[in-house]
## 1
Amino acid sequence: MITASSKLALLMEGYVRQRNGKMGFGLLRYGPSIAGCEITCVVAPDEVGQDLRALTGIDTDAPIVGSVEEARALGADTLVIAVATSGGVLPDIFRTHIVSALESGMSLVNGLHGRYAEIPEFAAALQPGANIWDVRLEPSGLRSGRGLAKDLPCRRVLTVGTDMAIGKMTASLELDRGARARGIRSKFLATGQIGICISGDGVPLDAVRVDFASGSIEMLCEKYGHDNDVLWVEGQGSALHPGSTAWVALLRGSMPTDLILVHKAGKTHLDNGLDSFPIPPLTDVVKLYEAVAGAGPGMPQAKVRGIALNCVDLSDDQVSRAIAEVEDATGLPCDDVVFNNAEKLLDALDLRA
C-alpha cells in the first residue's frame, strides 16, 4: 500500500513524454495532496537533466534521475511502476530497475497486469521488511450485479468519456475535492489502478471477471453510499471505443443518478491507431450515454449535467474559446476542472452543503 509515510520513486523510463505515463502523472499531481506520500523523484535515464514540470505541466519539484541507486540516495523506499502500458505488459527495460530496487530493500508497487510477487526473479530479490503490492488483482467475495445501488440514499455521479485516457479520473478527483471544500460529504470511488494508488481503496475493474464486474462496482457503492451525500465514480473506457466494455459495468453497477461527460478539446477521432473511428457530435454522445444509462424500467434516468473538457496543451485564450464552443454546441455547462476549477460543474449538479 501507499501511505502518508511512503517515499516514492516513479519508474517512467521512455514514458515521461507519453500519455501511457499516466500512472506517474496521476501520482505526481495527486499523490502528495490526497495520499499524503512524498514523490522523491522520477527514474527516467532518457530524460535526466530535463525539468519535469516543463515536460508534464504538473506543479512538482521532483527531479529526474537516471537510476534506482540515485533514487535510493534521495530517500525513496518504494518503486512504483508508473506507466499504464497497452495490455498491462511490463517493458523489458524495467526489469533491471525493479531487481535493483528490491535488492536494495525497496518495496514495489505494480499497477500492471500480473502477480509480480510470484515472479521468481522479483521474489528472490525482495528483502525482509519490504513488499510487492500487485494492485490489479480481482478482489475476493464478489457477486453478480443486482441493481441495488439505485436504492442508496446518495447521489452517484459517473464520469463517461469520448475515448480512453482523456481525464475521467482527474475530473472525478477534482469534483470530489471541490465538493468536500463546499462541506459536502463526498467520496471518490477508484475503479482503476492509478485511482486506487492515490485513494487507497477501490476496484481494479479491468482485473475483474465480466460476470462479477457490475457487482464489484455495486458493492463498492454500497460500502460508501450510506455515509456520503455524493459518490464520484471514476469512469473507464468509452462507449465509442471498440475495445472497451468497462463502461457498461460502471453504468449498471453504480446505477448513476448523474453523468459528467469527459472530452479532450479538439479531439475528432479515437487515438492509438483507431483514427478510422470518428467521435460523433457531443450532443449525440450525450444522448447515447443517457439512453444506455436509463435503458431499463426501474433504472435511474441519469442525465449528463455538464462536460469536463481536457484542455491540456492549450493556451489560456484557447481554453476559454474551447469551453465556449462546447457550451454553444451542446447547451451544457462546460469547464476544464484542472485549468479552472470544479465550481461550474458542481453548480450544474446543484451540489451545495
## 2
Amino acid sequence: MPNATKVLEYAHGGTSPIATLTLPDNASSGCSIDPKTNNLAVVFDTQVAIFQNELGTPAVYDTNIDARYCTYDKNGDLFVNGYGGNSGSEFALAELASGTSTFTTISVSNSVGNPGQLQWDGNYLLYQSLSKFGKLTQLQVIGSTATIVATITPQGLKHHVSQSWLYDGRLVIPYNVRGQFVNVIGTWDYPNVKKPTKTIRKFDSYKKRDIDFLGVAVSTQPK
C-alpha cells in the first residue's frame, strides 16, 4: 500500500505493517506486482519506482506522462495511465515493455475518461474512469495504439466511485448512494456486470458518515 514516501506491506488479515519500502518522492499513487518476477512497481509524479522482488532500493524510470495508476500484463509489460499531450491535460497511457528501460507513449482515446485504476483482466487492460460513475474500458494495445474493445458500466453506480479491484472474476468497487462520501462496497461478476452480487453497507462499529473510501483491495490467503 503506497503511503506518501513509503510502501507498506501487510500480511493476509494483518493490521500492522510487516515491511516498509522507501520511495524517492512523496507523491505516490498506484502500484502493481509483476506476476512473472514479483517486482513491485509504484507510481509517483511522472516516474515509476520498481523494487526487485519487493525489496531494497528501487530502479526509477521516467514515464513521460503525469502518471497515476499502473498494472503489469501477463508478459511482465508495465502500463501506466495519467495525463499528457501538448496541453498536459489529455488522457495518456505509457508502456515499459518487459526487458526494456524506456517507456513508450501509447495513443488512447479521451473517451476513456479521466485516469483511474488500471488493471490486467487476463486479456485486456481494464481502465477505470473515476469521473463517469465507474465506467470501465477494455483496451487492447498493439504497438503504440490502444484500441477500445468494450465499455463496461456496472449497474447501480450513479454517483461517486473510488478505486476498484479485479480478482478471480469479481469486480469490487467502493461507491456512494447519496452525498459526497464513498461508503458502500459492491461486488459484480466480471465482465458481465449486471446487478451487484453482494453489497456491503455496514462496517463493524464504524458509522457510514465517518467513512469515505479511497479504494479497495482483496487480500487472499497465501498458498
## 3
Amino acid sequence: MLIISDSKSLKNICYRLREADFVTVDTEFLRDKTYWPKLCLVQLAGPDELAAVDPLASGIDLTPLSELFDDERVLKVFHSARQDLEIFFHAFGRLPHPIVDTQIAAMVCGFGDSVGYDTLVKRLTGEHIDKGQRFTDWSHRPLSEKQINYALDDVTHLRRIHEDLARQIKKSDRTSWLDEEMAVLTSPETYRLDPENAWRRLKTRSNDGRYLSVLRELAEWREREAQRRDVPRNRVIRDEQLFDIATQRPADSKALARTRGLQSQVAEGRQGKELLSAVQRGLEKPREQQPRPVERENLPSELAPLVDLLKILLKMKCAEAEVAPKLVAGVADLERIAMGQKENVAAMAGWRKELFGTDAQKLRRGELALRVNGDRVEILEVENKEAAE
C-alpha cells in the first residue's frame, strides 16, 4: 500500500508511470460545502504498481501529475470520468489527454446504459467491490487502511476492465464510435462554467423577456459570488429566491427585504445592494438584448404512437448490435425524428445514423414495418406507394 504525500515520491512514481502504455485514474473528493470540488485523493495504477496521491499533504507539488496527464504517449483510463475531468480542469487549467472512459466503452460493447464500476468488475473479473467506504470523509487525516484499500480498488480492477473492453472494441471495429464520444468528453467547453449562462440551469416556465433579463443578471451575480466565496450556489441565495426577486423586481432595500426568505440585514447590506444592481441591469436591457429561452417544439399528440414504435426499433437495433440504447438516441432525439427533423439530432449523424437513424427515417416514411412473429418482433421492408409516387 503506497501513499504519496511528498513531492519527490510523486515525481518518482509519475516518472515510472510515463513508461506505461496506460494508467488508470480515479479521485476521491468532497463537494457538499464548496463550489469547486475539493480534491482529497488521486489514485493511480500502472501495469506493475499503484499508489494513492494525497493532494492535501503539506507542501506537495502536483506538477508531476499534470505532466503525466499531458503526456500524449500514455493513455489515461477513467470510469465515469466527467467529475474527475472537471476537477483536473479546474486544478490544472486543462484536461488529461488522451483518455478513455470505460463506462462509455462498456456502453459501446453492450453492457447497458451507464453501467456502474462495481457491476463491470463483477462481470469481467468475478471480483466483488466492498462499497462500505463510499460515503466516508475523504478530507479527514490520517486516512485509514480500509479507506486506502477501498480507493485503490477503483484503479486496480480498472486495468483488467480496460484491457477486456479494448479487445472487444477492436474486434467489433468500433474504435471510431468510442473516439467520437471521447471528443465530446474531452472538449474544454464541456467544463467551462460561464456565469453569463448560469440562468439556463434554472427551471423557470416564464417566457417574459423582462423577467428572464432580470433572472439572467441575478443568476450571473450568484454564480460569480459562489465562485468567489467557494460555496455552493444555494448557500449564496436559493433558486426560489431568485425567481421571486425576478418577479417582484424590487427598487430598494425595503422592497427587497419583502421578497422570499431574504432578511432585512442582508437586503440592506452589500449583498442587497448587488442584488438591486443586478435587477436594475436586467430592467435596462433593451428588448433585442433580452434572453430568449430555447423553445422545444411540443410533440403533436398524433405522433406519440410513432415515438413508441421508434423506441421499439431502437431497442431492436441496439440489441442486434450489442450497444446501449442510451448511447444511440434519447427520447428527445426520437421525438425530433418523429417530427421529421434532422438538424441537431445526434442519432442522424455518424455511426448512429448507420446503426439506427436511417432505419428510423424509413419507419417514419412507412418503408419499414414491425411485425410480431411468435415471440419475436421482426423488421420488414415494405413498399410505400405514396413515397414512390
## 4
Amino acid sequence: MQLVHPFDKLVLWSEMRLDGWKAMKILSRLRDAINQQDCRLCGGTATRPICAACDDDLARLPAARCPVCALPSHANQPCGRCLSSPPAYDSTHATLEYAFPITRLIQAFKYEHAVGLAATLANYLDEAAAPTADWQLDLLLPMPLARARLAERGYNQALELARVLVRHRRLALGVGAVTRVRHGPPQADLPWRERSRNIRGAFTAQRRFDGLTVCVIDDVMTTGATLDEMARVLKAAGARRVVNWVVARTLPRPEAHLP
C-alpha cells in the first residue's frame, strides 16, 4: 500500500474543507515553514539562501556601463579600452560587483561544494540579461574546466549555472563543445597583467559554430582574459557573435593601471 505524506494529507484536507483563498494562505505558510533556513550571508531566518535584506545590500554594477565589457562607462557607450583594443567577445552582461559579501557566496559555491547555490546565483544572471536583446541565442556554453581542475573540484560551477538557465529559458546547452586542453595556474592566483598570457591556447573547439550566437556562462569576470580567449576560439570555429553572462564583475583597482 502506498503511504500518503502528511503534507499531502494537509493539502487534500484544505481543498476539501476550506475555500480556495484560505487554503492557499495556509499552504503558503506551510511552504515557508518547510523552506525556512539560515541566510548564507547574515545568518538570519530566510526562505531562500539569501534573505531579502542581504539581497538589497549587494553591490550592483552602475546602470551606465560599457556594453562590451560591462565596466562603468558614460551613457552606456563602449569604453576607451574596448574601442582601442576590441576583445573577441561582442557583449557582456552582469548584475553584481564582485565585492564583499557576494564574494563569500561565490567562493562557497566554487570551492566549498555548495552546489545548491546554483539556482540563487543563476537568478542574478537572469537579472543581468533580461532587459537585453541577447535572448536570441543559439547555444549556452559553460566555461570549461581543465580535466585536472574538474577532478580536484568534483564539478564545474559554470555548468551548474548553465543547467539552471537551460531549464528556465529552454535554451540548448553545449556541454563539451569547447574543452580546456591546457592546465595552468588558476587565474585568480595571478597578477592581472599575466592572465592573458596564462590563458593563451588553453581552449580548443570540438565542433563548428558557423553562424551561431553563443552565450558563454561563467561566475566571475575579472580582467576578461579567459572570456576573451574563449571567444577567440569560438569565432575561429565560425561563431557569429559571442555573448558573456557572468554573475559578478570585478571593477579594476586604481593601482592596477590596466592598459
